[in-house]
Amino acid sequence: MNILIIEDEKTFASEIQSFLKAEGFICDMADTGKEASEKLSVNLYDFVLLDIGLPDYYGLDLIKEARHAGNDASFIIITARGAVEDKVKGLDLGADDYLAKPFALIELLSRIKAVARRKFHIETQDISLGDLMINIQSRIVTYKTTIVDLTKKEFDLLLYLALNRNKVLTRHQLYEHIWGNILNEQYDSNFIDVHIKNLRKKLNNYVETPWLETVRGIGYMISAD
Amino acid sequence: MRMIRLRTKLTLFNLLSKTAFAVVVIGLLPFVVKRINTIQTDLELIEKREKTIRIIEEAGIEAFITPDNENTFGSYNILKDEFISLERDTVSEELNYIEISSRLIEDETIDYRVLNYTIYIDDLNYLLQIGKSTETISKTEETTWSVIFVFLIFFIVSTLLLDLFYSKRILKPLEQIVEKIKSASSPLKYSREPVKTTTYDFIQLDQTIKDLMEEIVTLFRKEKEITVDISHELLTPVSITRSKLENLLLSSKLDIEAAEKIEESLHTINRLTTLVNSMLLIARIESHQYLKEDSFSLNAVLSEAIDEISPVAENNDIHINYTLKEDHIISQGNRSLLFSMFFNILSNAVKNSNTGDEIAVSCYRKEKNHLVRIKDNGKGMTNDQLKTLFSRFSTKYKRDGEGTGIGLAITKSIADFHNIDIKVTSETGQGTTFLLVFHKNS
Questions:
Q1: Regarding the domain delimited by B200-286, which CATH topology (the fold level of the hierarchy) does it fall under?
Q2: Looking at chain A from residue 111 to 170, which residues have their Cβ under 8 Å from any Cβ of chain B?
Q3: Where are the domains of chain B?
């Protein structure tokens, strides 16, 4: 898939680029609004990552231009302005999602994937972890035919780890994904540990969970083929 | 120093100055009245003298003085308060003076103010004496005196009442200005409506205060803008560093030790992010950038916050005991901010509880206000810690070296934003109680 990264901080843009390349995306970059406008009118992209705080352009105008020209690329807005009005305005103009700086690259990836699923109408497939099955659509986990009773937070945690299989996720990345709206300076790691502990306990009632690994000093990972 | 209202002061001053004036007047009055009366009596005596002389000239001296009556004529009126006497005077000296002298009349000594005057008729000297009894004179004095006294009292009382009324009226704008300042809970809320008055000084005062308030508001806004701008500027380098570290962590070539170090750096970066975002949040709340457009049940938000914190509490064997009976509907509020407020207080309670402790949450109504009480029986705080509880970056309340104590500062600004009072009581070793007072209109 093609992605245009519009970001005036070149170092930041190149970090995003190297991450997305490793995930198999084809990336193009623009560090001014003018350049972005040109590239958008010439090339076809599946995704546009748009930092709306551009020095030469009101970022949201790029969405208007693109839509006007019949460009149906999916926009994900990046901003240091966590202001609600920017978010609302962006989504009104047809942006597909919104990320506030600083964000986890993993989170960016999962947002892109989610937008892609919606855009290309990809059937969400159930994820199997041994004898356990995560049903994404109905948000339940089953062991053979029995439903495993999980809280909303436990389900989200398991799903996020499963979607990012074989990647170590730090406690903070997990916390941010699930409790993104709560500013909490001390409890993030503790929160995750408690929920993982509860999650393991519940799953262990049915099966052993050696695949739910604690990576010492870093975080958690689901290892699977 | 005792404080007295300006109006009271003015009235008191008025009363005192008038009383002083009255005392002086009453003190001096007898002398003045006496003097005026004497002058008046003397003029009267002189007038009578002239009349008498005219009568003598018309009727001739013989009508009054004959050798038969030993060359003396005397006439008293019945009450003996006046007399006229005429007699041959052997002394050639010319007399013209007024004096007080006593006369013995029918065994009664009476004091008279007497005019002595020498007249010449046919080369003969006659002494004319016209007298008025001093008793009559002092009676007139008393009358004059009491008239003046009554008038004086009337004057003082009526002007005092007028002063009271007028000073109240004239000082009303000042009271309105004071009221305006009092009713503004913050410079942001100071009324711009000018006070109606024609008094120049009050117009000046009102205008100056308004200008100052506007200046404060401008400075306040600027400060918030700077905070917001700095926060934005900080977030960009933080983002760059974070993405670099995350990319590093994802590369599989790392040994465990390096990975751990990178995670630690990421953790530090995240603390920095939380801090910047907290500052940003407070600046935004305080500059009213958040909307208050949600209408919701308070208990719903509160139980959400409890649900959120419960797993962590239970993990430490801390039990949250709650019965949410009385509900309160917030008609204009920001739901997610109030969630954060409850969450921060609950999180604080959990942090300060010991294993096995209990946290009690209750809601009730008292005097039209809705109250939410969150009570723990944990470590508690000293008075010193209580004082700095809501200040940003308070170090006194730190528990484990990691926190910045900004959570409760956020809580306070959210509460202020919603006009909620927070009362905290605490005792070391006994626990801490947060009492949130939702006013009827909050």
A1: Helix Hairpins (1.10.287)
A2: 151, 153, 167-168, 170
A3: 7-142, 200-286, 294-438
Query: Tokens for B305?
Result: 């916050």
B98-101 long-range CB contacts below 8 Å, 24 or more apart?
B98/B42, B98/B45, B100/B134, B101/B131
Nearest CA in chain B to A197: B315
- Kindly provide the ipTM of the predicted complex, given to two decimals: 0.88
Whether this model's pTM surpasses 0.80 = no
Substitution target from A88, A167, A175, A184 for chain B, most B beta carbons within 10 A: A184
Taking the CA of residue A197 and the nearest CA in chain B, the distance in Å comes to 9
Is B362 at the interface with chain A, CB within 8 A? no
Here the tokens at position B268 are 């530090």
Euclidean distance between CA atoms B276 and B150, whole angstroms: 79
The per-residue b/e assignment along A90-114, b for 16 or more CB within 10 angstroms, e otherwise, is beebebbbbbbbbbbbbbbbbbbee
B382 touches A: beta carbon within 8 Å: no
Q: What's the fold here for domain B294-438?
A: Heat Shock Protein 90 (3.30.565)
Q: Is A88 on the interface with B (CB under 8 A)?
A: no
Q: Tokens 């409506």 sit at which residue? A: B193
pLDDT tens for chain B, residues 1 to 442: 778 888 888 888 888 988 898 889 888 888 888 888 889 889 999 999 999 889 888 888 887 877 777 777 888 887 788 888 888 877 777 888 888 888 887 788 888 889 998 888 877 888 888 998 888 888 888 888 888 889 888 988 898 888 888 888 888 999 999 988 888 877 777 888 888 889 999 999 999 999 999 999 899 888 888 888 888 788 889 999 999 999 998 877 788 888 899 999 998 898 888 888 888 888 888 888 888 888 999 999 999 999 989 998 999 899 999 988 888 888 889 998 999 999 999 988 998 899 999 999 999 988 888 999 999 998 888 888 888 888 776 555 454 444 557 888 899 999 999 999 999 999 988 999 999 999 876 5
Beta strand residue intervals within B35-95, DSSP E: 72-76, 82-88
* Ordered structural domains, chain A, with CATH: 2-119 (3.40.50.2300), 127-222 (1.10.10.10)
